[in-house]
Structures are given as structure tokens and as C-alpha cells.
């Protein structure tokens, strides 16, 4: 039997898509809300948003407690409005020229593939451990400038797709290590707990399962034992439960009790 912690919570690591609220008046103040109407279901609960620029008959957009999906829609369909509110700022200095002066070369040769892939892996590990946005390598100009400056253009930071691929590989390794430990933990009478998280920002989402336990010497351990791409999946209790079962099946765990909840309103699904 695998014991899950009593509060198996769906959590969002909110970054650029944070919902800003005016505490005094209870109004959302993020600029994107000026361009959307709330869409409510038959019970009066908000289940989506309708773009004012697309018109009242347009299809409602999914909304999950942050503005990531709304901002993605504005970026794709209403580029001018998006640029007016979140357009890139011109750098204060010419970093490439400064790097060339500092290193005494125009641009270094590209790194060999194995070195590039090794750095990709370390970047993905940093992003996962520190819970940074998966798109940070594309959106953080200063971070790119640091790498360009130090490596003189010989390395390009990974796209969010490459970051996600590397995180999936890292989670596979973590799951393998955890599976190898299971017999030892069982022999020691240690019963691990797990928590599930949806890591979501700017329309990019991963569902992750984290196993954690304390050994007989009082030392705390944790392993990321499974991740599943979740960008195209509705963030409901049923989908979370389905993803959890898949990860646990890969770990050869078939008996468990799980209570899935979200922080808003959606579901309270219990399965045994």
C-alpha cells in the first residue's frame, strides 16, 4: 500500500500569468482583463473567458486561476495590443559587442553537440529544482545575455520544448532510482508519501508526481518520480487522477488511496 498525504493538492506555480487583484475593490487589475468577459456556466460559476476583440459570439477560452491562456491568445491573435502592453524593451547596452571586446573575439565556434546537450540538461535541472518558468530561457533577456557574454555566442539556451524534454528525461531517471529503492524502503518499514503538482505558466504545463520520505536516521529524501505533459489537458480532478494512475502503474504500484483537490472550485474526486 502506498500512502498519499491527506491533502493531495493541485497547485499552480504562478509566474507571468499571475492573477492580480485589487484587494480594496475586489477587481482584477492585470491589463489582459480589459479585453475579456467572464463566461459562466448554468450554476453561475466562471468556466471560461470570451475575448472582446473576437466578439461576443467567439468560443470561450479556458481559464484556470491565472492569465496564461488569455495572454497566449492575445499574443497569437492580437499582436498589436499584446505588444503595446508587454512588448520587448530595447537593451540598454549592446551585449554582443561588449562580449566581443571583453573576450577579444567576434564569436566563438559553436559548442560540440555533447557539451551543448550537457548544458541543456543542467539548465533544465536548475529550472525544475528552483521552480522557474519553463520558458525562462526564451523570455528572460538578461539570462540570455549572461550566457552570450560569458560563452561569446558559442551556446544558445534551450527552447521551452527542449527544457520540457530534458525535464521528462530527468523524471524518468528519478523514477528508476525510486523503483530501485522500493524494496529497501519496504524492508525498513518506510512508507513514502507523494504529492502531485501542475507546473503551469504561459500556456506550458507539466503534471509532476513527487515522492518523499524520512528514513530510519531521520534524513529527508524526495524524488520526482513522474512527469506528464499537461498543456493540452483540462486541469480537472478526473484528468489528475488518470495521470496519477499512469505514473504509479509505471512504478508497479497498483494499490493506493488518493484524494485529489484543486485550490479553486473544480473537483473533489476520491478513488480507492
From TrEMBL:
<dbReference type="InterPro" id="IPR003656">
    <property type="entry name" value="Znf_BED"/>
</dbReference>
<dbReference type="GO" id="GO:0003677">
    <property type="term" value="F:DNA binding"/>
</dbReference>
<dbReference type="InterPro" id="IPR036236">
    <property type="entry name" value="Znf_C2H2_sf"/>
</dbReference>
<keyword id="KW-0539">Nucleus</keyword>
<keyword id="KW-0804">Transcription</keyword>
<keyword id="KW-0479">Metal-binding</keyword>
<keyword id="KW-0805">Transcription regulation</keyword>
<keyword id="KW-0863">Zinc-finger</keyword>
<dbReference type="InterPro" id="IPR052035">
    <property type="entry name" value="ZnF_BED_domain_contain"/>
</dbReference>
<dbReference type="GO" id="GO:0008270">
    <property type="term" value="F:zinc ion binding"/>
</dbReference>
<dbReference type="GO" id="GO:0009791">
    <property type="term" value="P:post-embryonic development"/>
</dbReference>
<keyword id="KW-0862">Zinc</keyword>
<dbReference type="GO" id="GO:0005634">
    <property type="term" value="C:nucleus"/>
</dbReference>
<protein>
    <recommendedName>
        <fullName>BED-type domain-containing protein</fullName>
    </recommendedName>
</protein>
<feature type="domain" description="BED-type">
    <location>
        <begin position="27"/>
        <end position="85"/>
    </location>
</feature>
Amino acid at each position: 500500500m502506498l500512502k498519499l498525504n491527506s491533502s493531495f493538492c493541485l497547485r499552480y506555480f504562478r509566474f507571468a500569468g499571475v492573477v492580480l487583484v485589487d484587494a480594496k475593490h475586489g477587481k482584477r487589475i492585470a491589463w489582459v482583463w480589459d479585453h475579456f468577459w467572464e463566461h459562466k456556466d448554468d450554476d453561475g460559476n466562471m468556466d471560461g473567458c470570451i475575448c472582446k476583440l473576437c466578439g461576443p459570439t467567439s468560443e470561450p477560452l479556458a481559464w484556470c486561476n491565472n492569465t496564461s491562456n488569455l495572454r497566449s491568445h492575445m499574443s497569437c491573435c492580437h499582436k498589436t495590443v499584446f505588444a503595446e502592453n508587454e512588448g520587448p524593451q530595447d537593451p540598454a547596452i549592446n551585449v554582443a559587442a561588449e562580449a566581443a571586446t571583453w573576450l577579444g573575439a567576434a564569436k566563438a565556434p559553436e559548442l560540440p553537440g555533447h557539451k551543448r546537450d550537457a548544458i541543456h540538461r543542467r539548465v533544465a535541472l536548475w529550472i525544475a529544482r528552483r521552480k522557474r518558468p519553463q520558458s525562462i530561457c526564451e523570455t528572460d533577456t538578461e539570462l540570455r545575455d549572461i550566457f552570450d557574454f560569458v560563452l561569446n555566442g558559442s551556446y544558445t539556451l534551450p527552447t521551452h520544448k527542449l527544457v520540457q524534454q530534458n525535464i521528462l528525461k530527468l523524471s524518468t531517471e528519478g523514477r528508476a532510482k525510486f523503483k530501485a529503492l522500493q524494496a529497501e524502503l519496504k524492508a525498513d518499514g518506510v512508507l513514502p508519501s507523494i504529492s502531485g503538482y501542475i507546473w503551469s505558466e504561459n500556456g506550458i504545463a507539466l503534471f509532476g508526481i513527487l515522492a518523499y520520505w524520512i528514513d530510519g536516521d531521520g534524513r529527508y529524501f524526495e524524488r520526482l518520480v513522474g512527469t506528464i505533459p499537461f498543456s493540452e489537458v483540462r486541469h480537472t480532478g478526473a484528468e489528475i487522477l488518470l495521470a496519477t494512475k499512469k505514473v504509479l502503474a509505471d512504478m508497479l504500484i497498483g494499490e493506493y488511496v488518493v484524494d485529489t483537490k484543486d485550490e479553486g472550485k473544480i473537483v473533489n474526486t476520491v478513488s480507492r
